[in-house]
Amino acid sequence: MFQKLVSRNPDLARLVERGYAVAFDSNCLVVRDIPYLDEHGELQWGAIVAKLVFLDEESVAQDDHQVYFAGTHPHQIDGTRIGNLGGGAATIQLSKASDDVAVQRSFSNKPVPAGRFENFFDKIESYVSIISGPAIELYGANPFTFRVSEAFEADPIFKFQDTLTSRAQISDLNDGFAGETVAVIGLGGTGAYLLDLLVKTQVPTIRAFDGDGYHVHTAFRSPGRLTPDELNIPKANVYGSRYDNFRHGLLVEAIYIDETTADRLDGVTFAFVCVDKGSSRAAIFDLLISKGIPFIDVGMGLNRKHGSIGGMLRVTYYPADQAVEMRDRQLADLSDAADDIYRNNVQIGELNALNACLALIRYKQVRGFYLDEEGYKHMLFGIGSLHLVGESSFDEV
C-alpha cells in the first residue's frame, strides 16, 4: 500500500523524496520525526497526522487544511507558545502499527489567500516550518530523516478504504461490533435489504442463509442490479457474488436453517430472522434459544381491508436471557397465515427496506452505536398512520 500511494500521488512522493518520515495508517498520512520546542525550551520530537480522502483505491486528496499533532504545544525560542495554530485538544485512532504516535491536539492554520493547501506537500511543509522552525534554529534539528515506514495494516473487513469512519471520528463506536458473528436467516425481501445494509457495517463476520432460488419476482423485493445470468440460481450465489468484492468475512450459503443445519449457527453472536412462514420461524426460534443467541425477528402483516394496502411492520428483539418469555408472548406469528397478501404482492420493496432499516438500527442500539433511550423489545410501524410505537417492558407487552 505504501508504494501504491506514493506512486499514484505525486505530492506524497515529494514528501518521501524530501526526506520526511512518511507512513500511512488508518486512512491517514503520518509524518514522524517532527522536532519542536516544549515550554522549557527542550528539544522534543512529535508527529503530524493528516486525514486521507480516498478518491479510489490508490488516489487520495486532502480532507481540509487542518492537521493533528502527536506532542505538546510547540513553543518559540523565548518560551512563548507558537501562535496562529488554532485547533485544540483532539485524538485520532491509529492502528497498532502506529502505537508510538499518540495524537493530542489538532492545528488549524489556513493559508492566505487561497484558504486551502494545493496538495499534501505544501500542507506538511507549511506546518513543519511553523512547528519546527524554532527547534531547527536553536538545536539544528533535522526533520528530514528519510525514515519511512511501510507497515500498513490492511483493513480486515473492507476491500475498499472506509474513509468516512476516520473522517467522522466514530471509530470508537464500532468497538461494539468487535468479535461479532452475525447471521441473517432468510434472504427474501427484508432479509436481502438487511444483508445489503449489514455488509457495510464493521461487523467482522456475517453469515447468511437461504435455500431458495433467485427469480424475477425476487428482484422486485431486493436491492441491486438484476442481470439475466442471476435468474434461476440460488439466492446465496447471487448475493455472495454481489458483495464478494466489497468486504471480507461474508459467507452466504444456499441452505435452510433447521435442526439438520443447526451447526451453521455455532459461533454466531447475534442473528436476524427474516422468514415469512410462521412454522419455519418457530423452529428457528427454538434453535437460537437453545444456543443462547440473541436475535431480532422481522415481519409484516398486510391487508386490503380499506382498499389500499395497510398493515404493520414489526421488529422484535429477543435478548438471550429473555428470549423464552418473549417467544411465549407470541409477538411473532409462529404458525402459517393463510390470508396475508405479502406473499403475493411483489411491489413493496420500500416496506422491506424500511423493515430492514428498523431492525438494523435496533441492533446498532443494542451494540452501543446508536443512542438507545427506550430499550424497545417490540416495535410496530403502522403503514396507514406512519406511526412507530414501541414497548420495552414485559408488563406492557
Describe the model.
This protein folds into two domains: 2-156, no CATH class; 171-391, Rossmann fold, CATH 3.40.50. The chain has helices spanning 2-8, 10-18, 120-139, 163-168, 189-198, 216-219, 235-244, 278-290, 323-328, 349-366, and strands spanning 21-25, 28-37, 43-54, 60-62, 67-70, 88-89, 105-107, 181-185, 205-209, 213-214, 233-234, 250-253, 270-273, 295-306, 308-318, 378-382, 388-391. It has 397 residues and is an alpha+beta fold. The strands form three sheets. An eight-stranded mixed beta sheet has the order 12-9-8-13-14-15-16-17, sandwiched between helices. Strands 1, 2, 3, 4, 5, 6 and 7 form a seven-stranded antiparallel beta sheet that branches. Strands 10-11 form a two-stranded antiparallel ribbon. It starts with a helix and ends in a 6-residue tail after the last strand. Helix 1 (2-8) crosses helix 2, helix 2 packs parallel to helix 3 and helix 5 crosses helix 10 (349-366). It is built from ten helices and 17 strands. Helix content is 26%, strand content 23%.
